[in-house]
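Budget justification note: compute hours in this period were largely spent on complex prediction jobs such as the one shown. Inputs:
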Amino acid sequence: MAQQPAPGGLLEPVRQSVRVRRPIDAAFELFTRDIGSWWPVGTHHARGEVVGVVFEGRLGGRIYERCRDGETADWGEVLAWDPPRRVVFSWVLSVRQGAPTEVEVRFTAEDATTTRVEVEHRGWERLGGLATETRASYLNGWPLVMRLFLEAAGTA
Amino acid sequence: MAPSSDAVLDALGDRTRRTVLERLRDGPLPVVAIAKDLPVSRPAVSQHLKVLKDAGLVVDRQEGTRRIYAIDPSGLALLRAYVEAFWQGVLMTYARAAEAAMPLDVEQ
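Corresponding output:
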Protein backbone atom coordinates (compact mmCIF):
# COMPACT_ATOMS: atom_id res chain seq x y z
CA MET A 1 0.00 0.00 0.00
CA ALA A 2 1.24 3.49 -0.75
CA GLN A 3 2.56 5.36 2.24
CA GLN A 4 -0.08 7.68 3.66
CA PRO A 5 0.57 10.98 5.40
CA ALA A 6 -0.19 10.82 9.12
CA PRO A 7 -3.77 11.95 9.77
CA GLY A 8 -2.54 14.34 12.46
CA GLY A 9 -0.21 15.99 9.99
CA LEU A 10 -3.04 16.51 7.57
CA LEU A 11 -4.86 18.50 10.24
CA GLU A 12 -1.93 20.80 10.92
CA PRO A 13 -2.44 24.47 9.98
CA VAL A 14 -1.43 25.51 6.50
CA ARG A 15 1.25 28.19 6.78
CA GLN A 16 2.62 30.64 4.26
CA SER A 17 4.75 33.70 4.76
CA VAL A 18 6.24 36.60 2.86
CA ARG A 19 8.52 39.54 3.60
CA VAL A 20 7.63 42.97 2.28
CA ARG A 21 9.47 46.29 2.25
CA ARG A 22 6.89 48.23 4.14
CA PRO A 23 6.77 49.46 7.72
CA ILE A 24 4.61 47.26 9.91
CA ASP A 25 1.77 49.78 10.18
CA ALA A 26 1.56 50.15 6.40
CA ALA A 27 1.88 46.40 5.86
CA PHE A 28 -1.01 45.76 8.23
CA GLU A 29 -3.16 48.47 6.68
CA LEU A 30 -2.53 47.16 3.18
CA PHE A 31 -3.46 43.61 4.11
CA THR A 32 -6.65 44.58 5.94
CA ARG A 33 -8.50 47.79 5.16
CA ASP A 34 -6.82 48.19 1.76
CA ILE A 35 -7.36 44.56 0.79
CA GLY A 36 -9.51 45.62 -2.14
CA SER A 37 -6.53 47.30 -3.81
CA TRP A 38 -4.55 44.10 -4.32
CA TRP A 39 -6.51 40.88 -3.54
CA PRO A 40 -6.42 38.62 -6.64
CA VAL A 41 -10.19 38.60 -7.16
CA GLY A 42 -9.84 37.07 -10.62
CA THR A 43 -8.78 33.74 -9.13
CA HIS A 44 -9.65 34.04 -5.43
CA HIS A 45 -13.32 34.85 -5.05
CA ALA A 46 -16.61 33.42 -3.81
CA ARG A 47 -19.10 34.40 -6.53
CA GLY A 48 -16.93 36.12 -9.09
CA GLU A 49 -17.46 39.30 -11.13
CA VAL A 50 -15.99 41.09 -8.14
CA VAL A 51 -15.92 44.87 -8.18
CA GLY A 52 -14.58 45.35 -4.67
CA VAL A 53 -13.47 43.66 -1.46
CA VAL A 54 -14.38 45.10 1.92
CA PHE A 55 -12.45 44.40 5.14
CA GLU A 56 -14.15 46.02 8.10
CA GLY A 57 -11.23 46.65 10.41
CA ARG A 58 -12.72 46.00 13.82
CA LEU A 59 -13.68 43.13 16.06
CA GLY A 60 -16.75 41.52 14.52
CA GLY A 61 -16.16 43.28 11.21
CA ARG A 62 -17.17 41.50 8.02
CA ILE A 63 -14.90 40.57 5.15
CA TYR A 64 -16.80 40.25 1.90
CA GLU A 65 -16.74 40.76 -1.84
CA ARG A 66 -19.04 43.06 -3.74
CA CYS A 67 -20.13 41.71 -7.10
CA ARG A 68 -21.05 43.41 -10.35
CA ASP A 69 -24.71 42.45 -9.93
CA GLY A 70 -24.90 44.28 -6.61
CA GLU A 71 -24.80 41.16 -4.47
CA THR A 72 -22.23 40.55 -1.77
CA ALA A 73 -20.63 37.29 -0.62
CA ASP A 74 -19.12 36.83 2.82
CA TRP A 75 -15.57 35.59 3.23
CA GLY A 76 -15.38 35.76 6.99
CA GLU A 77 -15.62 37.78 10.18
CA VAL A 78 -12.92 39.44 12.27
CA LEU A 79 -12.35 37.43 15.47
CA ALA A 80 -9.33 39.33 16.80
CA TRP A 81 -8.24 42.83 15.83
CA ASP A 82 -4.81 43.75 17.16
CA PRO A 83 -3.23 46.25 14.74
CA PRO A 84 -0.54 46.32 13.56
CA ARG A 85 0.61 42.93 14.79
CA ARG A 86 -2.22 40.46 14.38
CA VAL A 87 -5.63 39.86 12.90
CA VAL A 88 -7.70 36.68 13.11
CA PHE A 89 -10.78 36.01 11.04
CA SER A 90 -13.14 33.18 10.31
CA TRP A 91 -12.88 31.99 6.74
CA VAL A 92 -15.26 30.33 4.34
CA LEU A 93 -13.84 31.44 1.01
CA SER A 94 -11.76 28.42 0.06
CA VAL A 95 -13.56 25.93 2.28
CA ARG A 96 -17.18 26.97 2.25
CA GLN A 97 -20.15 25.00 3.51
CA GLY A 98 -18.48 23.29 6.38
CA ALA A 99 -17.94 25.03 9.67
CA PRO A 100 -15.79 28.11 9.02
CA THR A 101 -12.06 27.59 9.26
CA GLU A 102 -9.86 30.26 10.82
CA VAL A 103 -7.06 32.44 9.46
CA GLU A 104 -4.52 34.30 11.56
CA VAL A 105 -2.22 36.86 9.95
CA ARG A 106 0.76 37.99 12.01
CA PHE A 107 2.97 40.98 11.21
CA THR A 108 6.50 41.25 12.57
CA ALA A 109 8.76 44.26 12.04
CA GLU A 110 12.20 43.06 11.00
CA ASP A 111 13.42 46.63 10.81
CA ALA A 112 11.86 50.04 10.26
CA THR A 113 10.96 49.33 6.64
CA THR A 114 10.66 45.54 6.42
CA THR A 115 7.79 43.43 7.69
CA ARG A 116 7.34 39.69 7.77
CA VAL A 117 3.77 38.59 7.16
CA GLU A 118 2.73 35.10 8.20
CA VAL A 119 -0.58 33.47 7.34
CA GLU A 120 -1.83 30.49 9.31
CA HIS A 121 -4.98 28.78 8.03
CA ARG A 122 -6.27 26.33 10.63
CA GLY A 123 -9.35 24.61 12.00
CA TRP A 124 -9.53 21.71 9.52
CA GLU A 125 -10.86 19.49 12.29
CA ARG A 126 -14.00 21.64 12.34
CA LEU A 127 -15.02 20.66 8.85
CA GLY A 128 -17.71 18.26 9.86
CA GLY A 129 -20.87 19.53 8.26
CA LEU A 130 -22.31 17.78 5.27
CA ALA A 131 -22.23 19.95 2.20
CA THR A 132 -25.53 21.24 0.91
CA GLU A 133 -26.04 22.55 -2.55
CA THR A 134 -26.54 26.29 -2.08
CA ARG A 135 -23.95 27.81 -4.36
CA ALA A 136 -22.73 26.82 -7.77
CA SER A 137 -19.02 26.47 -7.29
CA TYR A 138 -16.49 23.81 -7.94
CA LEU A 139 -15.31 24.24 -4.37
CA ASN A 140 -18.62 23.18 -2.86
CA GLY A 141 -17.60 19.61 -2.28
CA TRP A 142 -14.42 20.40 -0.49
CA PRO A 143 -15.51 20.33 3.17
CA LEU A 144 -17.47 17.15 2.60
CA VAL A 145 -14.56 15.42 0.98
CA MET A 146 -12.14 16.76 3.55
CA ARG A 147 -14.25 15.09 6.22
CA LEU A 148 -14.46 11.87 4.25
CA PHE A 149 -10.70 11.80 3.87
CA LEU A 150 -10.09 12.56 7.52
CA GLU A 151 -12.35 9.70 8.52
CA ALA A 152 -10.67 7.40 6.05
CA ALA A 153 -7.21 8.47 7.15
CA GLY A 154 -8.16 8.00 10.78
CA THR A 155 -9.11 4.40 10.21
CA ALA A 156 -6.40 3.49 7.71
CA MET B 1 -0.75 11.56 -15.41
CA ALA B 2 -0.17 12.39 -11.75
CA PRO B 3 -3.22 13.72 -9.93
CA SER B 4 -3.26 17.46 -9.30
CA SER B 5 -5.28 19.66 -7.00
CA ASP B 6 -6.95 21.02 -10.12
CA ALA B 7 -8.04 17.51 -11.01
CA VAL B 8 -9.30 17.07 -7.45
CA LEU B 9 -11.33 20.25 -7.56
CA ASP B 10 -12.64 19.53 -11.03
CA ALA B 11 -13.63 16.06 -9.91
CA LEU B 12 -15.50 17.53 -6.97
CA GLY B 13 -17.39 19.90 -9.21
CA ASP B 14 -20.01 17.28 -9.92
CA ARG B 15 -22.79 16.48 -7.49
CA THR B 16 -23.02 12.83 -8.48
CA ARG B 17 -19.32 12.34 -7.84
CA ARG B 18 -19.68 13.88 -4.40
CA THR B 19 -22.55 11.48 -3.72
CA VAL B 20 -20.36 8.60 -4.84
CA LEU B 21 -17.65 9.67 -2.40
CA GLU B 22 -20.17 9.97 0.36
CA ARG B 23 -21.33 6.41 -0.24
CA LEU B 24 -17.77 5.21 0.28
CA ARG B 25 -17.64 6.87 3.67
CA ASP B 26 -18.33 3.69 5.62
CA GLY B 27 -15.99 1.54 3.65
CA PRO B 28 -15.16 0.05 0.25
CA LEU B 29 -18.03 -0.87 -2.07
CA PRO B 30 -18.48 -2.59 -5.43
CA VAL B 31 -19.78 -0.49 -8.33
CA VAL B 32 -23.24 -2.05 -8.14
CA ALA B 33 -23.69 -0.88 -4.55
CA ILE B 34 -22.36 2.57 -5.34
CA ALA B 35 -24.75 2.93 -8.26
CA LYS B 36 -27.81 1.74 -6.32
CA ASP B 37 -30.69 4.25 -6.57
CA LEU B 38 -28.53 6.87 -8.24
CA PRO B 39 -30.41 8.74 -11.00
CA VAL B 40 -27.69 7.90 -13.52
CA SER B 41 -26.79 4.78 -15.46
CA ARG B 42 -24.22 2.22 -14.35
CA PRO B 43 -21.84 3.19 -17.17
CA ALA B 44 -22.18 6.81 -16.06
CA VAL B 45 -21.28 5.81 -12.50
CA SER B 46 -18.27 3.93 -13.80
CA GLN B 47 -17.22 7.02 -15.71
CA HIS B 48 -17.57 9.13 -12.56
CA LEU B 49 -15.46 6.59 -10.66
CA LYS B 50 -12.80 6.83 -13.32
CA VAL B 51 -12.66 10.62 -12.95
CA LEU B 52 -12.39 10.24 -9.17
CA LYS B 53 -9.67 7.65 -9.56
CA ASP B 54 -7.71 9.79 -12.02
CA ALA B 55 -7.93 12.66 -9.53
CA GLY B 56 -6.49 10.47 -6.80
CA LEU B 57 -9.68 10.53 -4.76
CA VAL B 58 -10.49 6.83 -4.85
CA VAL B 59 -8.57 3.61 -5.29
CA ASP B 60 -9.91 0.38 -6.75
CA ARG B 61 -9.05 -3.28 -6.64
CA GLN B 62 -10.34 -6.37 -8.38
CA GLU B 63 -12.07 -9.00 -6.22
CA GLY B 64 -13.09 -11.93 -8.39
CA THR B 65 -15.49 -10.49 -10.92
CA ARG B 66 -16.14 -7.36 -8.90
CA ARG B 67 -14.23 -4.11 -8.79
CA ILE B 68 -14.16 -2.60 -5.31
CA TYR B 69 -13.72 1.12 -4.76
CA ALA B 70 -12.52 2.93 -1.63
CA ILE B 71 -11.66 6.48 -0.63
CA ASP B 72 -7.99 7.33 -0.95
CA PRO B 73 -6.91 9.21 2.21
CA SER B 74 -3.86 10.62 0.46
CA GLY B 75 -6.19 12.86 -1.52
CA LEU B 76 -6.22 15.18 1.45
CA ALA B 77 -2.60 16.01 0.81
CA LEU B 78 -3.61 17.35 -2.60
CA LEU B 79 -6.28 19.50 -1.04
CA ARG B 80 -3.80 20.86 1.47
CA ALA B 81 -1.57 21.68 -1.44
CA TYR B 82 -4.48 23.57 -2.94
CA VAL B 83 -4.89 25.67 0.20
CA GLU B 84 -1.15 26.32 0.32
CA ALA B 85 -1.22 27.46 -3.28
CA PHE B 86 -4.23 29.63 -2.52
CA TRP B 87 -2.37 31.58 0.18
CA GLN B 88 0.86 31.56 -1.76
CA GLY B 89 -0.96 33.29 -4.60
CA VAL B 90 -2.54 35.75 -2.21
CA LEU B 91 0.74 36.61 -0.51
CA MET B 92 2.62 37.01 -3.78
CA THR B 93 -0.01 39.44 -4.99
CA TYR B 94 0.10 41.22 -1.66
CA ALA B 95 3.87 41.48 -1.79
CA ARG B 96 3.79 42.88 -5.32
CA ALA B 97 1.30 45.47 -4.12
CA ALA B 98 3.58 46.33 -1.24
CA GLU B 99 6.38 46.76 -3.79
CA ALA B 100 9.65 44.86 -3.82
CA ALA B 101 8.70 41.34 -2.79
CA MET B 102 11.15 39.03 -1.11
CA PRO B 103 9.20 35.80 -0.64
CA LEU B 104 10.42 33.43 2.02
CA ASP B 105 10.48 29.71 1.83
CA VAL B 106 7.23 27.99 2.59
CA GLU B 107 7.06 26.90 6.21
CA GLN B 108 6.02 23.35 6.87
